[in-house]
Design a protein that fits this description.
This protein has a single domain, classed as Cathepsin B, Chain A. The relative contact order is 0.19. The chain is built from 10 helices and 9 strands. By secondary structure, it is of the alpha+beta class. 38% of the residues lie in helices and 18% in strands.
Length: 244
């Protein structure tokens, strides 16, 4: 098997896996329509963007840990569960999978350090801020860097995100306002899975799979969506880098 065929096969298998997780293209027809500035991952055009990407190290582990947020306020929890499992951080026991240990949205808050940051009940009612996202991750002894858009820049974000997506064992979560990229409608959190250099687009691995598929978004549009004020904190949204 030549190198091109091997690499194509290596990439295609996670694409097939993710399509199965999403329930196939027929399921995606039930999600909300996308505006013309967004490219659905689960289309030929979206798949080509991944195939031509040179910054996609996070796609493979995230695709195997892809989950749907269990309620409409748990986007941050679902995103953290995906990242912690992808990092193979020591997990608590999950009663439904006993004796196996894995992070779930059900056991994520079963940690004294975690509930000191913010409780499960509060998050279930109102979600979380960018800083709470960072602090919750840090409660599991991973390295966390929190960047508010108001204290950074588009160029710095692009650089840090691309570097992150080129290397393994680290991840990036984005906190953005949906309506600024043409979606409905409030603040949201999801991991980034890849960056396409030729089109300057990032792949958002959207955890609200009942609402939107993973999408490729222009860097400038994503930055604009992150550089918005979160009314809960009075600060801008932004992004979080996570590593062991």
């Amino acid at each position: 098997m030549n190198k091109f065929t091997y690499q194509t096969l290596k990439i295609s298998l996670p694409i097939i896996l993710l399509s199965i997780c999403l329930g196939g293209r027929s399921t995606l027809s039930q999600t909300l329509p996308l505006t013309s500035n967004l490219i659905s991952f689960n289309t030929p055009a979206g798949e080509r963007l991944l195939l031509s990407s040179r910054s996609r190290s996070d796609f493979f582990p995230l695709s195997t840990q892809f989950v749907t947020q269990e309620n409409q306020a748990f986007c941050g929890v679902a995103s953290m569960v995906m990242v912690l499992n992808s990092l193979q951080v020591s997990a608590p026991e999950a009663p439904e999978y006993k004796p196996f240990k894995v992070f779930t949205q059900g056991n994520f808050f079963n940690n004294p350090k975690t509930i000191k940051v913010v409780s499960r009940d509060i998050v279930a009612r109102q979600g979380m801020t960018l800083q709470q996202l960072g602090n919750l991750l840090a409660s599991y002894d991973v390295k966390v860097e929190v960047y508010h858009a108001g204290n950074s820049s588009l160029e710095r974000f692009r650089q840090l995100a691309q570097e992150n997506l080129k290397s393994s064992d680290n991840f990036i979560l984005v906190n953005y306002l949906r309506k600024e990229i043409g979606q409905e409608s409030g603040g949201h959190i999801s991991p980034l899975a890849a960056y396409n250099e030729s089109t300057d687009r990032f792949l958002i691995m959207d955890v609200s799979r009942y609402k939107y598929p993973p999408v490729w978004v222009k860097t400038s549009d994503l930055w604009k969506a992150m550089n918005t004020q979160d009314q809960s904190s009075g600060k801008t949204r932004g992004f979080v880098l996570v590593s062991k």
